[in-house]
Every structure is written in C-alpha cells, then in structure tokens.
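User: Structure please.
Assistant: Input sequence and predicted structure:
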Amino acid sequence: MTPTRPAMRFRRSSALSTAAFLTVVLGLQACSVGTASDQTASADSIRIVLKEEPPTLEPCQSSQNSTGLVTRSNISEGLTSRDPATGELNPALATEWQQLDEKTWLFTLRDGVKFHDGTAFDAEAAAFSIDRMMNPDLGCDVTGQFFADQKLTTEVVSDSQLKVTSATPDPILPLKLSFVGIVPVTTDQQNKVREPIGTGPYHVGAWQPGTSLTLERFDDYWGELPDFSTAEYSWRPEGTIRAAMVLNNEADVAITLSPEDGAGDSAVEYDTNEVTYMRMDAGKAPLNDIRVREAINYALDKEGLLASIFAGKGKLATQLVPEGVTGHNPDLQPWPYDMEKAKALIAEAKADGVPVDEQITIIGRTGFYPRAGEAMEVVQNSLTEAGLNVKVEMGDVNTWLQHLLRPVPTDFGPRLLMGMHGNQAGDASFTLRNNLGSEGGQSSYGTPELDALIAAGESATGEKRAQAFADALAYEREEIVRDAMMVKVGAMIALSPVVSYEPNSASGDEMRVADMHRAGQ
C-alpha cells in the first residue's frame, strides 16, 4: 500500500478583484476545449491541464518535469519512494534493503506485483530496468541526473532478491534507485519508448498527439486503487486559459499558475524547492571572463523580479541546492543588485580586450513558469543596460532541451540558458555532479577542483557529506560563478470543487493522481 503523506503547508489564495474575475469569465467561451457534453466531469475521471504536452512518457526521461509529472508514480514506480514532506525513504517495489558492503546492496522485492501487460514483476525485471537505464547508447536523462559516471552491476539472487553493486562506494544508492522506473524485460533496450509499460496505478490509454492523453486505472495494481478510474490530461501554454478551464468546469486541476491568471477561489498556493536561474556558457567569450559573469549577477534586480514576475511568491535564491536538502549551504547570500558595479566590471573587461560586444543569446522556454517570456525580457533589459549585447530566443520544451542536455549545439555563440531546478531527492549529489560537474549531463562548465569537491561529498556520509557539498557550493560561488541565481519560487495550482488534493514540494515534477480524491472523502 502506498505510504500516506502528512499534509503540506498550503492555502487557498485570496479572491481576484471583481474586474479581473469578469475578464476571465468573459473569455471563457474562447477558452473552451470541448463541447458542452464533454465539459462535465465524470465521477470516475479527473481532468488535469498541463502547461505543455509531455514529449515522451519514457521512464528513464522522467527527471524532466514535463515527463515526470505524468510518468512518475502513476505509470512507473521505483524500488523505493521518497516522501517529499519528511525526506524519508519508503518501500515501493522493494520492501526492504540492506547494505552488504560499501559497494553492494541487497533488495528484497514485493510479491504479487504485476506489470500492465499482466506479466509478473520479479528480480529479473528489476535488474533489466537498472541495466537498461545504465545503457549509454540509450542516453537516459535519469542516468545523467542521478548516476553521472557511476556504474552499476546487478545480480539476480532469486525471484524476490536482487543485489546491486556500484563501481565506487555509494551510500545513498537506495535513494537514487527511487528514480529508476521499473519496466518489463520485453521493453526495447536500445530505443526509448514513448508509451511505457509499468507497475503503477495507471496505464497509458489513448494518446492523441497535440490534443490529449488519458491514463486508465490498473485494476490489478498491488496497492490501494486510486479514486479515479481515468486521468485525462490536456495542455494549454497560457496560464489564464488553464485557470479559466477550471472555473468553467473544463478541468479539475490546472498547474503552474500565477496570481494574475485569474483562478480566484480555486487557487491553491504551496511551497516548492524550485529555483530559477540563468546558466552561463562560461567557456565562451565574453562569458569566459569571470568579471562578466559577476557583472550579470550584479545587474539582475532579483527583488524586482520577485515582486513583478513572481508576484512576491517565493524568495531570493542563493544556490541550486535549496533548504532542506543535504548539502545546502546556509551561509550563501543572494547577490546584491548593483548596476553601477556591473557596468564597471563590463567596462574593465572591455578595456582588457574581452569582446563584451559579442552577441549573447538567452535561450528561453515558453511557459516554463508563469510569465517566463516577460522574465527573460527583464533579464535582457538589465544586461543591455550593464553594457552587454543580448537577444532572447523563446522556444518550446524540445528546442530548449537541445540547449540544456549534452551534447549541446556547437554551431552557436555564447548563451544564457533559462533554467529552473528543484532537488526532489533530498541530497545535493543529485544536483552538483549533473548540473555543475565538468561532464554533467546538464552542465555547461566545470573545473577539476570543483569535481574533486563534489566527489568528496559523494563518498562521505552524515555531517561530513553535508559539509563537503556545502564547501563545493561555496567554491562554485566564489571561484567559478557559472550561474546567475534568481528566485526560489512559490507555486500555485487551481482545483475544482470536486477535487481534494494537497500539493507538496515535489508536485512540479511528480504529480501523483493517487493522491487526488473526491472532495469530502
């Protein structure tokens, strides 16, 4: 049975002004996504509107939030499951685990679990899924995000027991394996699958590309069956339309909203550990000069961004590793806003021959967070004022991913990548190597010195682990300055009156339909 979670801190937002509400209501007809007959919710169906269509449901891509929102814990499950409220690691497809030596763990697997195709889950399937995820030719994002250059080998002890051995000591291997979605041995080993088979409470039903996606309840699920027999997903990039769909009874849940989107009393605010930032191509001129990177940090008015773009929901970000995650450095403070200092650093670099007039491209992602396009315009204007030559290119998730993940396009000038990162796993290792290491799958720059500090944290435990990661973050801040941190964001969703759901800090990456219930139950 899936462990229950304590309630997270959340609240209904205050109602909109009358004028704003009327604006939304008058636009409802234009926002309609179906006929009158299909706008009424079925008692057995929940309708969820996303900001974008998932590019794939492949489990090994579920560290990308657009995929993970639908796939993780709904379609596929891991051996373990982390509770985002407490940080505790709970049983999932494994009921218990023990460390045999510094590199080897023994997992005891749950009996009576079936895949959506009716085949039995066993140690062979678990081993296959881990080996498949580690296949470098498959290029799984989960691998780069959580395992980097770590190598795993598996040994089937019996149908219900599996040994997993890491090439180097890995004290949090059971936590990492919570992100490996288990699939049957019939799954393609060489190519990613768009519609996977898993063990979760839902299986893929109908997917009409560009229009809608339906998940259907898996009646042979090993745990408690969820309330809703189907989950119907649609997507609209405009937050105002997503909010209006809930108000107009065209959707039950709308995600990634801002206060200006007009959700009214249906809005629910909650805390996240997502931080927004700009990732710099620190290896390309003029961004290869640390003075330019420092200037970018000074030039961004983070308080202004928080107040205007994020409507005051959140606080200034200091690092990629948020509070509550092992390795967070509490001593790091936000960069102060100092335009004059930024201008002086750019002028100094220019005087030394740094080509500060070289055009820098901001790669943005449409709908990444509310008012994302406006945020990038603010960044562009600030950096232009500081003396840099900056343009903005906004694109969809697939275009943005081409610049996020290695190998990035090489026939491209210096770039700033619009980024948002949330460490849902509770340990800085899931952030540092992949996002800041020299060879990280989502890293644009690193140094041997920083790599060594990250490695020291990965091999340590307890307070030594936390301190080593904190030292790595301090080193990155003082000696490298690859990122321009912006805002640790709050979040907002809209819920229809028929749905009860308590969002948590992981809801932006993993929205469990099984946690959604009919109101009053």
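Confidence is low (pLDDT under 50) at residues 1-41.
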